[in-house]
Design goal:
Blueprint: E1 6-16, H1 18-28, E2 32-48, H2 53-60, E3 64-73, E4 81-90, E5 93-102, H3 103-112, H4 120-131, E6 136-150, E7 153-167, E8 180-181, E9 188-194, H5 200-208, E10 213-214, H6 218-226, E11 235-237, E12 244-246
Antiparallel strand pairs: 1-5, 1-9, 1-10, 2-3, 2-6, 3-4, 4-5, 6-7, 7-8, 7-9, 11-12
Length: 248
Amino acid sequence: MKDIMTFRRVEKKYRLNPAQKDALLAAIGAHLTPDAHGRNTICSLYLDTPDHLIIRNSIIARAYKEKLRLRSYGTPTMDDQVFLEIKKKYKGVVYKRREIMTLREAMTYIEDGQKPCDSQIMREIDYAMHFYRNPKPMMLIAYEREAYFDAENPDLRITFDTNVRARDTDCRLENGSNGEYLLPEDAILMEIKTSGAMPVWLAQALSQCGIRPGRFSKYGTAYLRNAGLIEAPVYIRSHVKGDVTIHV
């Protein structure tokens, strides 16, 4: 599946243990095809203001959230391609716009404001950069991702993230993916991403495996921990709406 530059979809998050993941893949594996990036290390460099305005707004907001980030697959060199992204969430629907460029072009833009191109997406990103008065790299989040999509409905994607880690120093993609771990070693974060309703076969498999939806923000958790507002993420299951959320 080719890289897509624009997204509009609903994303549901889940926390699994290894046994649940194995049971789920056994139940739905026939529907899934490995993504073009397959298994890879995802590195995301989050841009923010010196007082962390973007992530603070995202944590407290209910209807609207947004983030600016630079993403790579693996540790890039300055001449490798990366994705500069703006990600927005409004009333549960995620909108993502991304522009592909080399890491050198991306860092030149972030540091000096020199746009690598003048596309519609680049203008949208540039507007957000000016709105936040040129935010800079403030947090690097990395993890290993295993990604799949439904061959009959490529809009349906399922990802499994492990070894989620973060650092707020040496915030350069080319300097590797090391960081402090945010979750226990056996924790798996799964995301189901779809532009429409979840298929019945998937909903049934989730129920059979005892997997329930939840909320978890990698950047939000790293920021709160580094700010001393939480010691560790607390994952609490709510039986009212079936949500799993972090309480701080």
